[in-house]
TrEMBL record:
Residues 25-44 bind DNA. InterPro entries: Homeodomain-like_sf (IPR009057), HTH-type_TetR-like_transc_reg (IPR050109), HTH_TetR (IPR001647), Tet_transcr_reg_TetR-rel_C_sf (IPR036271). Keywords: DNA-binding. Pfam families: TetR_N. This is TetR/AcrR family transcriptional regulator. Residues 2-62 form the HTH tetR-type domain. It comes from Nocardiopsis coralli. SUPFAM superfamilies: Homeodomain-like, Tetracyclin repressor-like, C-terminal domain.
Length: 188
């Protein structure tokens, strides 16, 4: 990526996350990044492509964050299932406006929009990760459990109450641990 393209993407990422995708136009992104609109279009082609690129970059960072958390030594297979919740707690400290993917899905309802597809793919990846971790842990009904965990995860992102002493990610992390223990084969 050229330095100009990097500035455009960095500026767009900040603006899209802070102000919303539909509220931010290419004029503002060009001004904020110090490039011309022509440079923006030469590098990305369209706002839609820039939105998808922004979401893909966030997705890569999030997946790397989860992968790093899964490398924690001495985790039992059951504990590994709840690692995305621990990673989410850490992630939310630096992302107070909630989930960029939920926000994108709310702002981009058209499934043909490339940004919508990136956000939907991120949710599918997380569902598949939960399913894989639950299967590896030998838990009962891993597909059902994965769906329950995804709903908890997404709920934590949708419900952030700043006035409380516990984060929503911490609360759903505890709930996820209860679900994982209940799905253990030794439980009736």
């Amino acid at each position: 990526m050229t330095p100009g393209a990097r500035r455009v993407l960095d500026s767009a990422s900040e603006l899209f996350y802070e102000r919303g995708i539909t509220a931010v136009g290419v004029d503002l992104i060009a001004q904020h990044s110090g490039v011309t609109k022509r440079t923006l279009y030469n590098r990305f082609g369209s706002k839609e492509t820039l939105v998808a690129t922004y979401l893909l970059a966030r997705d890569r960072r999030w997946r790397a964050h989860v992968a790093d958390a899964l490398e924690t030594p001495d985790l039992s297979p059951g504990e590994r299932v709840t690692v995305p919740f621990r990673a989410l707690r850490e992630w939310m400290r630096g992302n107070p406006r909630g989930c960029a993917f939920i926000n994108a899905l709310a702002e981009l309802p058209d499934p043909e929009h490339p940004g919508h597809q990136v956000a939907a793919d991120q949710q599918q990846w997380l569902l598949e990760l939960f399913t894989s971790l639950a299967t590896d842990a030998g838990l009962r009904t891993p597909d059902d459990l994965a769906h329950q965990l995804l709903c908890l995860y997404e709920g934590a992102l949708a419900v952030q109450v700043p006035a409380t002493t516990r984060s929503s990610a911490e609360t759903v992390g505890d709930a996820a641990a209860v679900l994982v223990r209940a799905a253990a084969p030794s439980n009736p």
